[in-house]
């Protein structure tokens, strides 16, 4: 006997649900209580069993469909018992509902992590949506549901497991394998060791430090004039004088007034280690990638000393001649893109430091002077300060950038070198 199997009432307040798994196909033989499909609603995950025994003739639903009570699920050729009687069981009582528990009350199981796969992973629409929002590849999670589908408990278990890992592996999301050649010609270019290591460090820093970036600008007209004079005076010394040594000295003066920016959290995260030394990490772009060698004792050096140090470390960085000690012990980092371009950017903090200064390309701008009531051309340097919000609040960061801009603009502190 041919019979339409309809979706029963799903319970109070549930007007529709998403089909997360279809367990039958035409030709399948079903016994009473065999599962036809699995539904996911906002209130419950439900398995819909069959109240009839027979053979599936046609399936009207697919994964991802939204269904309502009374809709046709399948057509069955129902087997009739010899005496013409069948056990009558209310389908409504057959719906196995699994009420959701609050996350804090749910003992999520340990989830096995797999290698990324090109194959799709069985999961409910709700789980897939959450995974997309968190940028988690479901193919790396071993599902514990029917047909190994990934349940919400599986996903939550995976997230909790990642958060429990050491900082180096926290929330490290695997990239899905994609065949880009299906859209055109491609070329594989493996990342070198420096780029891989730098990428891992930057990802760890971004994921473990609550970054905030403060933007500001400084009038460096006086600084520019001082630099040109210094270049003229030292032309015979073959020393390249850039803006960076001036910026480093200005940063030292500012850090002395705001010592928490020249610090690190200790291993407990409960105390601040204030550093009385000023060793600056300087981001250097090399053919192999970004490196951050350290210039030590910036507060004790003249502009020419710093210029010579910068020429030395930059040259050795580009020739892969840096030593391990050249990369250790920085208390503050400066990343300068002034020679390349751009207006502002958000530099990533170099752990275990708590702040990093990013300098962009300076340009001449017409600036209104409220004292003379004139518009005067000034050489303006945009800069950015990223800071660890666990240590530094917004008011302190704004005060720091304002003071740094004032010191740079004034220019009276610069340590002019003696002629050697």
Distance between the termini: 107 Å
From the spread of the alpha carbons, the general shape counts as elongated
- Average pLDDT, rounded to a whole number, is 83
Order of helices and strands: EEEEEEEEHEHHHEHHEEEEEEHEEEEH
Helix content: 10-25%
Structural class: alpha+beta
> What profile does the largest beta sheet have?
7 strands, mixed
Question: Tell me, what is the CATH class of the largest domain?
Answer: Alpha Beta
Provide the β-strand percentage band.
Answer: 15-25%
Uncertain segments are 84-110, 167-171
The number of helical elements comes to 8
CATH fold name of the largest domain, please?
Chloramphenicol Acetyltransferase
Instruction: Name the CATH superfamily classification of the largest domain.
Output: Chloramphenicol acetyltransferase-like domain
Q: Which architecture of the largest domain would the CATH scheme give at its second level?
A: 2-Layer Sandwich
| Rg of Cα set | 33 Å
* Secondary structure tally: strands: 20
Characterise this structure.
The protein is α+β, with helices and mostly antiparallel strands. It has 3 domains: 2-99, RNA polymerase II/Efflux pump adaptor protein, barrel-sandwich hybrid domain (OB fold (Dihydrolipoamide Acetyltransferase, E2P), Beta Barrel), CATH 2.40.50; 103-175, no CATH class; 194-410, Chloramphenicol acetyltransferase-like domain (Chloramphenicol Acetyltransferase). It has 8 helices and 20 strands. It has helices at 91-94, 125-134, 152-164, 193-208, 221-233, 244-257, 303-318, 394-410, and strands at 2-6, 17-22, 29-30, 35-40, 44-49, 54-59, 66-67, 72-78, 96-99, 211-219, 263-265, 272-274, 280-282, 284-286, 289-291, 294-295, 332-336, 355-359, 363-369, 374-388. The strands form 5 sheets. Strands 10, 13, 16, 17, 18, 19 and 20 form a 7-stranded mixed β-sheet that branches. A 5-stranded antiparallel β-sheet has the order 7-2-4-5-9. Strands 1-8-6-3 form a 4-stranded antiparallel β-sheet, with no helix packed on it. Helix 6 (244-257) crosses helix 7 (303-318) and helix 6 crosses helix 8. Residues 84-110 and 167-171 have low confidence and may be disordered.
